[in-house]
Design goal:
- The chain is of the alpha+beta class.
- The protein has three domains: 316 residues, alpha-galactosidase from lactobacil brevis (Beta-galactosidase, Chain A, domain 5, Distorted Sandwich); 243 residues, Aldolase class I (TIM Barrel, Alpha-Beta Barrel); 116 residues, Golgi alpha-mannosidase II (Immunoglobulin-like, Sandwich), CATH 2.60.40.
- It contains 15 helices and 38 strands.
- The strands form seven sheets. Strands 6, 7, 8, 9, 11, 12, 14, 15, 19 and 20 form a ten-stranded antiparallel sheet that branches.
- Helix 4 packs parallel to helix 5 and helix 10 packs parallel to helix 11.
- The longest helix is centred in the C-terminal third of the chain and has 19 residues.
Length: 753
């Protein structure tokens, strides 16, 4: 709910949190508080607002009438340029022949709305499925320059979430240039705040870095035409009192978050579109809207905040009919066949998928044009008749007769220089045609800022989906932009990246509306576009091309801090792994990939009978606990040589725990595991999942049998002492015998009365 007192105190309240804004007599918006729900914002005002009597030394104050108010040392809802606020601004403009930059926005009014305020800008935004949202507009005007700034706050009470965005309007007769317009700003008066960001690169997505915010600045940004693996848009803030904030951005393009602290101890956070990749001219009467930022807060710490963000994504972000449905289990042809596809091989793999108990097959890269490698045919989205003489319809029909879903891989944003499409439309690429452009994967990018290109992609992909009865669309993007040049008339290239992302959203939205039952999984050569913007159009996202379970373990755990398991796609692939050449046992490959949306990327026809039976057993087990694996409450319990995760049902009656060991350490002592998600009120039975072993596996690493009955409080606080592990002093029957890179999956169930 949104409470308003005296037209100057705005209490944006969820069920459990309060966000309070106070309009100062000067007309500036003071940020008072964001944290645990307060009963009465108005009654708290005198106590919690900052008392100013004198400005800091060398400060620039706004007026002779109020020399105590220095914007640079004030907790504000937005910073701007020219009036003594020297921090990173939320808004930066220029106008006039001389490029004047000063802005002086003062409060001019507010509006309150039931529900959400539709963007109408081509950007995706959070939806109000529960019918409970309220929206507050705070309006600020620069009267001299005739510019309006609106801050939009939408509250989702039961989700404990607040979204923010900014809108600039040129109200006068003059044009202006937006140099920067962030989506949100948070100011705190503290020196004891730390930030966790998630960065990486191709095949090493979602690395985690936690740093104390100190004097100076920390920058987390993407300078690519994608949210990128280099810096996920989501981040975590934690204060010394244990309150955690998770913030994110509903955007798939270049973004930036800046975390800084002033010498006076004010912590300042601004995030939104990356201004280095953006500028936007506004003609008189025009407006521009920033992407929507998301904030959740929990005084109960990180994992409570994580649960709130997961609930928000599940309820307010994911659009398709799959948003509340369990995701299907698919076989992907890539690591089983690579480019060596044929009708017979696909159907043989589909038969194997059915025998394993899987629910569909995705025909990956290599099915189209003259594709034999990664240097040709992207853009020629018709079946390779050498591999599929009868086309794909008959393959699809055969797969459907097996009772399986049929999926296809596309890379619609790309175009190979060696393709029929390039010969027909060389001007459709991003880049010049009178010089050699830089390449990525021997490809160019199509110019999605062009309506004719967007129409061609929608119609071409839709035609294949319709003709081949495609149930599952895997949308990939395998290169980032270079040689920024468009063959259509563009007067300001600062607009290009944003227009490209708007074009991408338009395409995905059009396909989704044409095929409302279609399962769309997005990928950007792995996780280079893993963000809330893409989840407004897809049911899941491919986490990484690196399917090694040891590498994937940290990626999954870190991604699951920000995003629900139901959107994290992960696969079981052959061993040795194609990328790391690491050998891992069959069960560890499953145990890690099971936390999220499980798939398999291998050729079932190469499996022995015992291997096929073991994989079938894995699939049966996953189906039994699919709701828990995809929608359960996730916790990273431990992260070292032992990696321990848990995922729990809402009522805590069932918990699954992963125990993953990286390396054997000789001469170790007894081990315990603690289950933080256990309920103290329950009694539990804990046991390890049994699995099939070949004779060689059974002789090398026999499976121990452990089963305990334990009260929930003991499970949570005293822990369970595990059977001793072999570590250099010989072996006796019943001991745990785990090798390097091996694991166990523990099942913890409430004992019913």
């Amino acid at each position: 709910m949104i409470g308003i007192e005296n037209g100057s105190i705005f209490h944006v309240a969820t069920d459990n949190t309060s966000y309070i804004v106070h309009i100062l007599p000067s007309g500036h918006a003071e940020h008072l508080y964001y944290g645990k729900r307060l009963r009465d914002a108005g009654a708290s005002l005198t106590a919690i607002r900052e008392k100013r009597y004198i400005s800091p030394g060398m400060a620039t104050y706004i007026s002779e009438d109020d020399f105590s108010l220095a914007l640079d040392d004030s907790l504000l809802e937005f910073s701007s340029e020219g009036k003594g606020d020297y921090r990173v601004p939320l808004i930066a403009l220029s106008w006039g022949d001389k490029g004047e930059r000063t802005a002086d926005f003062r409060f001019s009014g507010y509006r309150k709305h039931d529900g959400i305020l539709t963007m109408g800008s081509g950007l995706p935004q959070a939806k109000d499925k529960a019918g409970e949202a309220e929206t507050l507009e705070l309006i600020f005007d620069d009267d001299l320059r005739q510019i309006e700034l609106r801050l939009i706050y939408t509250v989702f009470p039961s989700l404990d979430a607040i979204t923010r965005r900014s809108i600039v309007t040129a109200k006068g007769k003059n044009s202006l240039l937006i140099r920067s317009l962030a989506s949100a700003q948070l100011d705190f008066r503290t020196r004891d705040m730390k930030v966790t960001t998630f960065s990486g690169t191709w095949a090493r997505e979602f690395g985690k870095t936690t740093r104390k915010i100190e004097e100076g600045s920390i920058v987390s940004e993407s300078r690519r035409m994608a949210s990128s693996a280099e810096a996920n848009p989501g981040f975590i803030l934690e204060d010394s009192n244990g309150t955690a904030y998770i913030c994110n951005l509903i955007y798939s393009g270049p973004h930036r978050a800046v975390f800084s602290q002033t010498p006076q101890g004010l912590t300042h956070i601004v995030w939104g579109i990356n201004p280095d990749m953006f500028s936007w001219p506004l003609n008189p009467g025009e407006s521009f809207t920033s992407p929507e930022a998301v904030m959740v807060c929990s005084p109960d710490g990180l994992w409570s905040a994580s649960e709130k963000m997961h609930a928000f994504a599940d309820s307010a972000i994911i659009r398709s009919v799959w948003s509340s449905r369990m995701r299907p289990l698919m076989l992907n042809t890539w690591e089983g066949a690579y480019y060596a596809l044929s009708e017979k091989r696909v159907l043989d793999m589909a038969e194997g998928a059915k025998e394993m108990g899987l629910e569909g097959i995705i025909v990956d890269d290599g099915w189209f044009g003259a594709r034999r490698n990664d240097r040709t045919s992207v853009g020629d989205w018709h079946a390779n008749t050498m591999k599929f003489p009868e086309g794909l319809f008959e393959v699809s029909e055969s797969v459907h007769r097996m009772g399986l879903l049929f999926g296809l891989w596309f890379e619609p944003e790309g175009i190979s220089g060696k393709s029929l499409l390039y010969k027909e439309h060389p001007d459709w690429i991003i880049g010049r045609t009178d010089e050699e452009n830089a390449k990525g994967r021997s490809e160019e990018l199509l110019d999605l800022t062009r309506q004719d290109v967007r129409d061609w992609i929608v119609n071409t992909v839709s035609s294949v989906i319709d003709r081949c009865r495609v149930d599952y669309l895997r949308w990939d993007m395998s290169r980032h932009y270079s040689d920024l040049f468009s063959h259509q008339d563009i007067k300001d290239y600062g607009t290009f990246c944003h227009k490209y992302i708007l074009g991408l959203y338009q395409i995905l939205g059009s396909i989704g509306r044409r095929f409302p039952g279609l399962y769309i999984e997005t990928s950007a050569s792995g996780g280079a576009r893993f963000d809330l913007g893409m989840l407004c159009y897809s049911a899941s996202i491919w986490l990484s091309v690196d399917s090694d379970p040891i590498e994937r373990a940290s990626m999954i755990a870190n991604a699951a801090t920000l995003y629900p398991l139901s959107v994290i796609e992960s696969s079981v692939s052959p061993s040795p792994n194609s990328m790391t050449h690491r050998i891992t046992d069959r069960e560890t490959r499953f145990n890690v990939a099971a936390f999220g949306v499980l798939s398999y990327s291998l050729d079932p026809s190469t499996l022995s009978r015992i291997e096929m039976a073991a994989f079938r057993q894995q699939v049966e087990f996953y189906k039994s606990y699919r709701m828990l694996f995809q929608f359960g409450s996730f916790r990273l319990e431990e992260n070292g040589n032992r990696i321990i995760w848990s995922v729990a049902s809402k009522d805590r009656s069932t918990i699954l725990m992963l125990y993953l060991q990286k390396k054997i350490i000789p001469n170790t002592s007894a081990e315990k595991i603690f289950v933080s998600q256990a309920s103290s009120e329950y009694d539990y039975r804990i046991f390890s999942r049994s699995h099939l072993l070949t004779d060689q596996e059974a002789s090398s690493y026999p499976q121990e049998s452990e089963c305990y009955t334990v009260p929930g409080d003991a499970l949570k606080y005293a822990g369970v002492s595990l059977v001793e592990q072999v570590s250099g002093n010989g072996y006796r029957e019943g001991m745990r015998m785990l090798g390097d890179f091996s694991s166990r999956l523990y099942i913890i169930r409430r004992i019913e009365d």
